[in-house]
Design goal:
By secondary structure, the chain is mainly alpha-helical. It has helices spanning 16-27, 35-44, 48-69. Helix content is 61%, strand content 0%. The protein is built from 3 helices and no strands.
């Protein structure tokens, strides 16, 4: 497989950043954290803050949907 993407969803205190770094080193592939928003901004000409805002809104929307799906 020549091209692949590994996504590690992480929350505060989950250790996801450290896992991503170690996995990247072990597999010999690059890893991106916030750099991906900067790259998208530069390529599209859209301000980086816009990407950040959309990311946060989608995250809040997903959390709300998940919370509403949990039976009382």
């Amino acid at each position: 497989m020549d091209n692949y993407v590994i996504t590690i969803a992480r929350g505060f205190g989950s250790g996801g950043l450290e896992i991503a770094k170690k996995l990247s080193e072990k597999l010999g592939i690059p890893w991106y954290e916030r750099q991906i928003l900067k790259m998208a901004s530069e390529k599209s000409g859209i301000a980086e803050g816009v990407f950040d805002e959309v990311d946060e809104k989608l995250r809040r929307k997903l959390i709300t949907r998940l919370m509403n799906a949990i039976p009382n």
